[in-house]
Design a protein that fits this description.
mainly alpha, 2 domains
């Protein structure tokens, strides 16, 4: 029943100002199944945008998902079309465990995002590859090449994000 209530709340605020979405989040943020419910709603094209925004907000607030709870998110990646939804998911990757079975769909999603017209999505796709390499070391050499190439070929705004990734990487190596 809680999922249906959440679905109705998100339908009511879809397309509304972020403040309305934040109010729904504030009201529901301490409900134990909220993270998994939001992940399940990513499969619904009408609710992807508000669900992805709220999921990112929930993860940034310190809530976590296990590998099994995050699994449906990785299955939903190929169906995420809206650039804002893709961006929210990309920005959430720092907080998500990436299981072995989720690597292939995530890698395909990230490669697709690197081809996006939207610079924010492209910039955060590089960040996504960095997160993938942090959890699955076999990607590190390729990610290093991707980041180098981005510093040569990408727009200034994307280069700035890549430089932030490289700074993070240096901190992580120390």
């Amino acid at each position: 029943m809680a999922l249906e209530d959440l679905k109705r709340d998100l339908e009511a605020v879809a397309g509304q100002p972020v403040a309305d979405l934040q109010a729904v989040y504030d009201r529901r943020s301490e409900e134990p199944p909220l993270g998994t419910e939001l992940v399940s709603l990513l499969a619904d094209p009408q609710l992807q945008k508000p669900a992805s925004w709220m999921l990112r907000r929930h993860l940034e607030a310190g809530h976590t998902l296990s590998v099994s709870q995050a699994k449906p998110l990785f299955r939903a990646l190929s169906g995420l079309q809206d650039w804002e939804t893709r961006l929210q998911v990309l920005q959430s990757l720092s907080y998500l465990p990436i299981g072995k079975r989720e690597v292939k769909p995530l890698e395909a999603f990230l490669r697709d995002c690197l081809e996006s017209e939207n610079k924010f999505v492209r910039a955060w796709a590089y960040h996504g590859f960095h997160e993938l390499a942090l959890q699955h070391a076999q990607f590190q050499a390729e990610v290093d090449r991707l980041l180098e190439r981005a510093l040569e070929d990408e727009a200034a705004s994307i280069k700035a994000r890549v430089r932030n990734i490289l700074k993070q990487k240096l901190k992580h190596q120390r």
